[in-house]
Design brief:
The complex is a heterodimer of chains A (243) and B (401). With 243 residues, chain A is of the alpha/beta class. Chain A has one domain: P-loop containing nucleotide triphosphate hydrolases (Rossmann fold), CATH 3.40.50.300. Helices cover 33% and strands 30% of the residues of chain A. Chain A has seven helices and eleven strands. The model of chain A has no long low-confidence stretch (mean pLDDT 91). Chain B is 53% helix and 17% strand. The radius of gyration of chain B is 31 Å and the shape is elongated. Classes of the chains: A alpha/beta (243), B alpha+beta (401). At the A-B interface, helix 2 and helix 3 of A face helix 1, helix 8, helix 9 and helix 11 of B.
Chain lengths: 243, 401
C-alpha cells in the first residue's frame, strides 16, 4: 500500500511527569494513503490540532513514530523539520496567515526562497499557481486589497509552491461565507483529483461528509471511530473502545 | 538567503512602524553625528599640529622667563643680551634671536585698543619660521628701520580690531608715536597671532627705552638630538645668570615638546568627548534591542507562518538581524550626513571668528567607518531579539493572537 503518512503508537504529553501533565494524544495509530482526502473531526480540546501539528511536522511526538513519505520524522532537529515541512507539506489556515507587507505573488514565492529556488523559477511558478487559482489579475495586490476568499486562494497557491505531497488545511472555510467556502473547497477537491493528499480539520460535519473520502472522529486524544465513503455511502470502519 | 523578497519584508516592517523606527534611528544617529563631528575636528587639529612638526618650526627651541603668563605681560624680569649670547654659543644651537613683547595701546582713527607688540631683529627669520608668518601684502621690515610696522592679518578686516580695516601706508599711533603700516602678514589662523603689531627691535627700544630685555628667545638647533641641546642651553643659561641647578628662573622647551603637550591634551579632550558619544551609542543600542524585541513579539504569529512554510531557525535569525542592521545603517548614513553638515557649519563659523586653524579633516574612512560602526551597533543590538525570534515554537506562534 502506498502510504504517505503513518503514525505508530503516537503520544503527545505536555509537561510530562509533572503535576500539570496533560495528555493530548493517546496511542494514536493511523495510516494515510497517497491521494486520499481525509477529514479530522472532533470537539475543541479533543487533540485534533495537536495531531495536525505532528503530521505537519511543526512538532514532534512525546512517544511513538511518525513517518512522512517513508521517512521517520519523530526525532528530527528543528532545522530538518523546517526543511521537511517546507518541501512536503502545504499549510492552509483558518486566518489565511498571509504576510501583509508582501504582494500575493511575493507571498507565494516565499516558501520557494526557503528551498533556495532561483528567482526566475520562483516568479514563473508563483504566477502559474496564482493563475490556476484564478487570481491572475490580483498578483500584485496586497492581502489587505483582497477579499477573504481571494486571500484563502492565495494561501492555497502558497501551500502548493514547493509541490508538497500533503495539503494540511485547518478549518479552511472557517472565516469564509458559505459560497466562498464552497469555492475554496472546490479547489481543494480539484487538487485531490490531481493526486494531492488532502487533510482537513473541521468542526463542520457537512463539509467533511460532502468533500472528504474518510473521516477520523477524535475525542479525548483518541480516535473514536473512522468512517469511509465507499461507493458513495459512509461506512464505519472501526471503533476504538474507550480505555 | 537574504533574497529580495525577504529584504522587502524587513524594510516594509520598518516602514510600517514609522514612528518607532524613526525614534530608534534618531537615538543612534545623535551618537554617530557627535562622533563624526569630533573625530573630524580632532583629525584636523592633529594634522594642524603635525604640519608644525614637519614644517619650519620643528628645529626651534623657545626660552622664556618662568612665571610669565604670556610673553610681554610680566614686567619684572626678562632675558638679557648676555643670555642671548650664552645661548648662541651653546653647542648644538645654530642661531638665536631675542623677541620683545609688550601689551601696548594702539590708536587708529581715534579708536584705542590694547594689543601685543612684538619687536624682532629682521636679520633673523627665526620668529617668522616659528609662527609661520608670511607677508600677505606690502613688504617685510628691514634692519634698523624705525617708524614702520607690519600688522597681523586681522587689522585689514573691518570690526575685527578697529571698526575700519587698516590699509597699507596708513598711520597708526603706538603710545602716541606715529608709525607707518608697510605690510600685512598672512593669516596664521589663531586670533592672538593675527592681532599682533610687529616692529624692529631698534624701533621697540626707541619706543620703550626702559624695557628690561627680551620676553623670549627663539633658537634653531641641530635636530639630531634636540633634548640634549635643550639640556645644554639650560646649563649655559644657569652659568650666565649665576644660578645653581634647581634655581632656574627660566624654562627651555623645544617646539616638539610644546606640540607633544598640546597633542596629549588634545588626546584627552577628544578621547573624553568620543567616550561620551560612545556611551550615547551604547544607550541607543539598548533602545534598538528593545525596539527589536517589541517587533519580534508583535510578529510572533508571522514568525510561526514563516516557519510553517519552511523557514529554518537560522533564516528567521538572519531576517531579524538584517532588520536591525538596516536600522543601524540608515541611522549611520543620516548621522554622517548631519555630522558633515554641522561640521561644515562649525567650520564656517570658526573661520569667521578668526579660528581658521580649527579645521575639520575628513577622510573616506571617517564616512565609511561611522556608517559601518552604526551598522554594527544595529546588528549587535539585534542579536538577542533575533535569537529570541528564531527560537519561537511554530506551534505556539501560530496560536498567538
Amino acid at each position: 500500500m502506498d502510504e504517505i503518512i503513518k503514525l505508530e503508537e503516537v503520544w503527545k504529553i505536555y509537561n510530562e511527569g509533572e503535576e500539570n501533565q496533560v495528555i493530548a494524544l493517546k496511542n494514536i495509530n493511523l495510516h494515510v494513503k497517497r491521494g486520499d482526502f481525509i477529514a479530522v473531526m472532533g470537539p475543541s480540546g479533543s487533540g485534533k490540532s495537536t495531531g495536525m501539528n505532528l503530521i505537519g511536522s511543526l512538532d514532534i511526538p512525546s512517544h511513538g513514530k511518525i513517518f512522512l513519505d517513508q521517512h521517520n520524522i519523530s526525532h528530527l532537529s528543528e532545522s530538518d523539520l523546517a526543511q521537511v515541512r517546507g518541501k512536503k507539506i502545504g499549510f492552509i489556515f483558518q486566518q489565511f496567515n498571509l504576510i501583509p507587507n508582501l504582494t500575493a505573488k511575493e507571498n507565494v514565492m516565499l516558501p520557494m526562497i526557503f528551498q533556495e529556488m532561483d528567482e526566475i523559477e520562483r516568479i514563473i511558478k508563483a504566477e502559474s499557481l496564482l493563475k490556476m487559482m484564478e487570481l491572475g489579475d490580483r498578483m500584485d495586490h496586497y492581502p489587505s486589497e483582497l477579499s477573504g476568499g481571494q486571500q484563502q486562494r492565495v494561501a492555497i497557491a502558497r501551500a502548493l509552491a514547493n509541490d508538497p505531497e500533503v495539503i494540511l488545511a485547518d478549518e479552511p472555510t472557517g472565516n469564509l461565507d458559505t459560497h466562498t467556502g464552497e469555492v475554496v473547497m472546490k479547489f481543494l477537491n480539484k487538487l485531490n483529483n490531481e493526486g494531492k493528499t488532502i487533510i482537513i480539520v473541521t468542526h463542520d460535519p457537512d463539509l467533511a461528509l460532502e468533500h472528504s473520502k474518510k473521516i477520523y472522529w477524535i475525542k479525548d486524544g483518541q480516535i473514536e471511530r473512522v468512517t469511509e465513503k465507499i461507493k458513495g455511502k459512509w461506512k464505519t470502519l472501526k471503533k476504538v473502545p474507550n480505555e | 538567503m537574504i533574497s529580495k523578497e525577504v529584504m522587502k519584508y524587513s524594510l516594509e516592517n520598518l516602514k510600517k512602524k514609522k514612528m518607532r523606527s524613526l525614534l530608534t534611528i534618531i537615538s543612534i544617529f545623535i551618537g554617530i553625528a557627535t562622533i563624526f563631528i569630533f573625530v573630524s575636528f580632532g583629525l584636523g587639529l592633529y594634522s594642524y599640529i603635525n604640519s608644525f612638526v614637519t614644517g619650519t618650526s620643528a628645529d626651534k627651541i623657545i626660552i622664556q622667563p618662568k612665571g610669565m603668563s604670556a610673553p610681554g605681560l610680566d614686567a619684572g624680569f626678562a632675558l638679557t643680551e648676555k643670555d642671548l649670547t650664552a645661548i648662541e654659543r651653546t653647542s648644538g644651537v645654530q642661531a638665536a634671536t631675542g623677541i620683545y613683547m609688550k601689551v601696548v595701546q594702539v590708536e587708529y582713527k581715534n579708536t584705542n585698543k590694547y594689543v601685543f607688540v612684538g619687536g624682532f631683529d629682521p636679520r633673523s627669520n627665526l620668529m617668522e619660521e616659528l609662527s609661520g608668518l608670511k607677508i600677505y601684502s606690502g613688504r617685510q621690515l628691514q634692519s634698523n628701520e624705525k617708524g614702520d610696522v607690519v600688522l597681523g592679518y586681522n587689522y585689514m578686516t573691518d570690526n575685527k580690531i578697529f571698526p575700519n580695516g587698516v590699509s597699507l601706508n596708513e598711520e597708526i599711533k603706538i603710545n602716541g608715536e606715529k608709525a607707518k603700516v608697510i605690510g600685512f602678514y598672512q593669516p596664521v589662523g589663531n586670533p592672538q597671532d593675527d592681532s599682533n603689531v610687529y616692529m624692529t627691535d631698534d624701533f621697540f627700544r626707541e619706543l620703550y627705552p626702559n624695557s628690561t630685555g627680551y620676553s623670549e628667545i627663539i633658537a634653531s638647533v641641530d635636530t639630531s638630538n634636540i633634548p640634549q641641546v635643550v639640556q645644554n642651553v639650560e646649563k649655559s643659561l644657569l652659568k650666565s645668570r649665576n644660578l645653581a641647578k634647581g634655581q632656574e628662573d627660566f624654562f627651555v622647551a623645544s617646539f616638539e615638546d610644546l606640540l607633544k603637550t598640546y597633542a596629549s591634551a588634545l588626546d584627552i579632550v577628544v578621547g573624553f568627548i568620543i567616550l561620551i558619544a560612545l556611551i550615547s551609542v551604547l544607550v541607543s543600542a539598548i533602545n534598538t534591542s528593545n525596539t527589536m524585541i517589541t517587533s519580534v513579539i508583535e510578529r510572533t504569529r508571522e514568525i510561526g507562518v514563516l516557519k510553517s512554510i519552511g523557514a529554518r531557525n537560522s533564516e528567521i535569525f538572519t531576517l531579524f538581524l538584517f532588520e536591525s542592521s538596516a536600522l543601524g545603517m540608515i541611522a549611520g548614513t543620516i548621522g554622517v550626513l548631519i555630522g558633515f553638515a554641522l561640521t561644515e557649519l562649525a567650520k564656517a563659523i570658526l573661520m569667521n571668528l578668526g579660528l581658521g586653524f580649527l579645521q575639520p579633516n575628513y577622510s573616506f574612512w571617517l564616512f565609511a567607518g561611522c556608517i559601518l560602526f552604526a551598522t554594527m551597533t544595529g546588528a549587535v543590538s539585534g542579536v538577542i531579539p533575533a535569537i529570541h525570534a528564531s527560537k519561537i515554537s511554530p506551534v505556539r506562534a501560530l496560536r498567538y493572537e
